[in-house]
């Protein structure tokens, strides 16, 4: 069994659609803000919009509709919830098997290494939020020159291993500069 929910169920919890008049922010339309191009052009502006939405959402509570779907999941094996909502109210109501079509406004992703994590802070302390910079490794003291090996058959020092091109980018070391955190939630331009 599958249930599909959209903005309607969260409207009952007082969350605006963020597309109608009640959801407009600084006279801007969501289509101007919820795009990768808008984020690339002005990440701080887009983050201010998402931070405002997160502050609206954090004050809302799951309603009986969210809770009914959570108990349905508990009683029906194989039940899956598909939602267009990014607000996380289904999670807070107790649903666990959720397919989130437009992502989750509480998940953030590093733009450099694409690592994802949950961040429930609303408001965020700084915009755009940054990954803490990794300090550079201290330089090692210079070692005295090594004497040549006494015998030609002495094992040669292993040559450095080249990086594995198949290694997932999430395993690569983070960069030494602060990296911006992007948004995992990719809302559609139309609902
Ligand atoms: Zn990163």
Q: What report would you give on this structure?
A:
It is a single chain. With 191 residues, the protein is α/β, with parallel strands linked by helices. The chain has a single domain (2-135, 170-183), classed as SIR2/SIRT2 'Small Domain' (2-Layer Sandwich), CATH 3.30.1600.10. Helices cover 23% and strands 13% of the residues. The protein contains five helices and seven strands, in the order βααααβαβββββ. The protein has helices at residues 7-11, 36-41, 43-58, 64-75, 89-93; strands at 2-5, 80-83, 98-100, 107-110, 116-118, 130-131, 179-183. It has a four-stranded antiparallel beta sheet with strand order 5-4-7-6, with no helix packed on it. A hairpin with a 5-residue loop joins strand 4 (107-110) and strand 5. The two termini are 23 Å apart. The model is unreliable at 154-159, 167-178 and 182-191 (pLDDT under 50). Zinc ion is lined by residues 110, 112-113, 115, 131, 174, 179.
Helix content: 10-25%
Biggest β-sheet strands, sense, barrel: 4 strands, antiparallel
Please, what is the CATH homologous superfamily? SIR2/SIRT2 'Small Domain'
Number of discrete helical segments: 5
What is the mean pLDDT?
A: 81
- Which segments are poorly predicted (pLDDT under 50) over 5 or more consecutive residues? 154-159, 167-178, 182-191
**SSE string:** EHHHHEHEEEEE
């Amino acid at each position: 069994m599958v249930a599909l929910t959209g903005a309607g169920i969260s409207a009952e919890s007082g969350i605006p659609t963020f597309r109608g008049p009640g959801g407009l922010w600084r006279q801007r339309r969501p289509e101007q803000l919820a795009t990768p191009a808008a984020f690339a052009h002005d990440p701080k502006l887009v983050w201010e919009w998402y931070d405002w939405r997160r502050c609206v959402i954090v004050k809302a509570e799951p309603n009986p509709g969210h809770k009914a779907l959570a108990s349905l999941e508990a009683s029906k094996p194989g039940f899956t919830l598909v939602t267009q909502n990014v607000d996380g109210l289904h999670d807070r109501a107790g649903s666990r098997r959720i397919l989130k079509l437009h992502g989750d406004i509480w998940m953030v992703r590093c733009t450099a290494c694409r690592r994802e994590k949950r961040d429930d802070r609303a408001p965020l302390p700084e915009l755009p939020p940054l990954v803490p910079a990794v300090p550079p490794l201290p330089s090692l003291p210079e070692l005295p020159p090594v004497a040549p090996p006494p015998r030609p058959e002495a094992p040669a020092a292993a040559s450095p291993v080249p990086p594995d091109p198949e290694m997932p980018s999430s395993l690569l070391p983070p960069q030494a500069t602060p990296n911006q955190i992007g948004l995992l939630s990719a809302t559609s331009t139309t609902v």
